[in-house]
Amino acid sequence: MDARSPDLTQDLTQDLTQDAAGWRTDAPATKSLAEVNATVAIPAAGAWWRRLLAFVGPGYMVSVGYMDPGNWATDLAGGSRFGYTLLSVILLSNLMAILLQSLAARLGIVTDRDLAQACRATYSPAVNFLLWLACEAAIIACDLAEVIGTAIALKLLFGIPLVGGALIAALDAFLLLVLMNRGFRFLEAFVMALLAVIAVCFAVQIVAAAPPVAEVLRGFAPKREIFTNPEMLYIAIGIIGATVMPHNLYLHSSIVQTRAYARNDEGRRDAIKWATTDSTIALMLALFINAAILVVAAATFHTSGHSDVAEIGQAFELLSPLLGLGIASTLFAVALLASGLNSTVTATLAGQIVMEGFLDLRLPSWARRLVTRGIAIIPVIAVTAVYGERGTADLLVFSQVVLSMQLPFAVIPLVRFVSDRRKMGQFAIPVSVVAIAWIVAGVIVVLNVKLLVDTLFG
């Protein structure tokens, strides 16, 4: 059965602009990331681990977005102000991410469309344009976090002023071009190597911080005050926005299609299994790193009375003296730089996927990246010039709240598509998963509405 057009009887009342699967007949049929689509070979036989290794990569590229510089700001603020309390939010958001990313991978594998293409092939042009604007806002907010994070890392390591670091960050638009020219697997290997650097840096800091295990474990239990304390809720929603990133759903639904699995029912079923395994393992690494940032902040700053540490620069200055480990601050900055570089790669691809999917508009990736980077750099330079480093720290946290506000516009279409048996055929998610997915979507919407009300009237 062709997943694009399941063999189902067409409803006589159906709109003539849609086929039996509910896709618009005037939608472009271009493959997602056509230059690398189905280019990674999958062994037809052999041990199970060989097939798993062939699928390893997309999940780790997606996980980059769950530990980018925006996460650092919200995790540092949460740990220093409220100790281990918001660990439960990190755990919850990570579980939400595992579910949503598995749905995004399923959509791409089954329909041969990424999420942006699926929206374009379902909704009216006006709705698609609004969805594109919302997604672009999320990508720009993410890009903003990357620019600030990379600029701060360059300043901490090499003494480069923030404005200069922001301008240098704009040039890394060409990094993706170099990596893509070497092949998609080379790109994945680069990303995974930087993830390993980040993990090692924080593992060392966790050991040095020696947090009390009992308090850390209690932090994973939800607390009512998270919802009743407006300041805590603001940071909690920022953590959700920094963890469950809307552009990652578009990204994942596309890059899973780089695998050359058989485009039939058996091949798709196998691909869904291994792609979900890949992303779940990768997102557990993201959980460790996000929790590690908050735990280090809680154990180092909150317990020593430095509850106002919300800036990455402050954390860098205080880590080594408070931990008694001279290399701690350097490891922190190195991990931040690795995070910024990695986020550049994934946001570049996400921007390309969104623009091509919604608008069917194809620009060279370097041109697309320079445009979005330019938009992100302008507010960074303006805020830095007027308010200094404190302003960029506030802007970093605010960018994550903006990301969270865009989540419903990606999550709701995704859940609708993967639960639609016309579009997904036998691969539509079961009713129990549909219920959980809508609960997740509902939680996201309710939290965002409360944040908006508190912001406007609180």
Question: Could you characterize what this model shows?
Answer:
Helix 3 (69-82) packs antiparallel against helix 12 (230-243) and helix 12 packs across helix 20 (431-457). The protein contains 20 helices and no strands. The chain is mainly alpha-helical and 458 residues long. It is globular and about 65 Å long.
Entry keywords:
20 helices, mainly alpha, 458 residues
Unreliable parts = 5-16
Question: Beta-sheet strand percentage?
Answer: under 5%
Q: Oligomeric state of the chains?
A: single chain
By secondary-structure content and strand pairing, the structural class works out as mainly alpha
Number of helices: 20
* Rg (C-alpha, Å): 22 Å
Distance between the termini: 54 Å
Portion of residues in helices? over 70%
Principal-axes shape call = globular
Q: Sheet with the most strands?
A: none
**DSSP E strands, number:** 0
Secondary-structure element string: HHHHHHHHHHHHHHHHHHHH
Whole-number mean pLDDT: 83
